[in-house]
Amino acid sequence: MTTPSKIWSKVDYDKDGKQNGWLQLPHSVTRSAYGNIAIPISVIRNGAGPTVFLMSGNHGDEYEGQIALCKLVRTLEPGEIKGRVIVLPAANLPAAMAGVRVSPIDQGNLNRAFPGDPDGTPTFAIAHYIDTVLYPMADFHHDLHSGGSSLQYLPFASMRQGGDAGLNRRALAALKAFGAPIGLVWAYSPDLRLSSVAAINHGLVGLGGEFGGGGSVSGKGVRIVEQGLRNLLAHAGVIDEGRAVCDFAGPTRLMEVKGRDYYVYAPDAGLFEPASELGDDVKKGQLCGLVHFVDNPGRPPEACHYDRDGMVICKRHYGRVERGDCVVHLATDYA
Ligand SMILES: [Zn+2]
Predict the structure, then answer these.
(1) Which among 3, 45, 7, 43 is positioned nearest to 23, based on CA atoms?
(2) Digit-coded pLDDT (tens) for 74-96
(3) CA Rg value for the chain
(4) Percent of the chain beyond pLDDT 70?
(5) Distance (Å, rounded) from C-alpha 218 to C-alpha 216?
(6) CA of 111 to the centre of ligand 1 (A)
(7) In this structure, are residues 54 and 88 in contact, taking their beta carbons and an 8 Å threshold?
(8) Ligand 1 centre from 143 Cα, in Å?
(9) Beta carbons of 239 and 83 less than 8 angstroms apart
(10) Considering only CA atoms, which of 140, 137, 139, 131 is closest in space to residue 178?
(11) Which end of the chain is more exposed for a tag (fewer CB within 10 A), N or C?
(12) Element at 122 (helix H, strand E)
């Protein structure tokens, strides 16, 4: 018997119509002894049909999804859907309000907190609610990310490869339907306490994606998300096909990340000079960049090189690095 979540809400997930409400996470502090962290949630429902659960603000400094979901909450009406759309646009609200990756309350990284803990700190309690209440209600899920403050991404939608071949096929079909210029298949991640892994464990057709970065807002990234969400809702059967608008020419380019050798890490602390840019095709052994030592200019810079061929899909945003920081990761065409 698992402990139930202490998060409560006046939102009724089984009621038709549009509700904009809050998840109330009890949080007793000096300025508010009986207070709650009020995390916004919207439910748009019209009779029987599939449930699509859309989420952003898992990391607070990743903004394209947060903007697109605010717009969707205001524009999507019950009369145009069949089934249910649940929107959690600022999943880790304290992080989203501070514009940072991890919660300033508990330093919790929501996307390293699944399956969560109902009696843990706020970040773990939120993960637990998503895992035990929201995921079991859903058929489709999209968790919208970007590179955050420290990384820049070429925008793409993504799926995670799990152990169920049938579910992988359904996720790949949803990824193609989303219609981003690039669709990335994650076959490797250094950490598995992720929302996407939890969603797969619940049998959901789950998508992700990185739609910008550098702690800024990509207008192109917002448009890709807005149009892609319409396409995903149509693919799920929640809205009519005709309502999905996409202005991208040509099919999605499918790519993948398959191992640790796709990533390059800073070999020393200093100031990183990249030798390639987003979208560049690179070869194994090619120079990735140089770490310079501005406090000791006579010392030769430390070089790092690519461990494999691929395309630069992600690069570090900040100039200063510590040893071990990821400076680039690659993607290759999906085989
Ligand atoms: Zn993220």
Answers:
(1) 7
(2) 999 999 999 999 999 999 999 99
(3) 21
(4) 97
(5) 7
(6) 7
(7) yes
(8) 9
(9) no
(10) 140
(11) N
(12) helix 122-129
H-run or E-run covering 118: none
**What is the rounded distance in angstroms from the CA atom of residue 52 to the CA atom of residue 103?**
26
Q: How remote is the CA of residue 119 from the centroid of ligand 1, in Å?
A: 24
pLDDT digits (tens, 9 = 90+) for 211-226: 999 999 999 999 999 9
- Tell me, in angstroms, the distance from the centre of ligand 1 to residue 253's CA: 22
Q: How far is the CA of 59 from the centre of ligand 1 (A)?
A: 5
Distance, C-alpha 152 to centroid of its chain:
14
- Please give the distance, rounded to the nearest whole angstrom, from the Cα atom of residue 177 to the centre of ligand 1: 22
Do the beta carbons of residue 157 and residue 205 sit within 8 Å? no
Residues 6+ apart with CB under 8 A from 166: none
- From ligand 1's centre to the CA of 308, what distance in Å? 25
Token pair in block for residue 313: 């899909």
Q: Tell me the per-residue pLDDT of 118-130, one tens digit each, with 9 for 90 and over.
A: 999 999 999 999 9
Tell which residue, 50, 53, 78, has the closest CA to residue 238: 50
Q: List, for residues 55-67, the tens digit of each pLDDT value.
A: 999 999 999 999 9
Mapped onto helix, strand or coil, the DSSP state of residue 129 is helix
Name the pTM for this structure.
0.96
Cα 146 to ligand 1 centroid, rounded to whole Å: 5
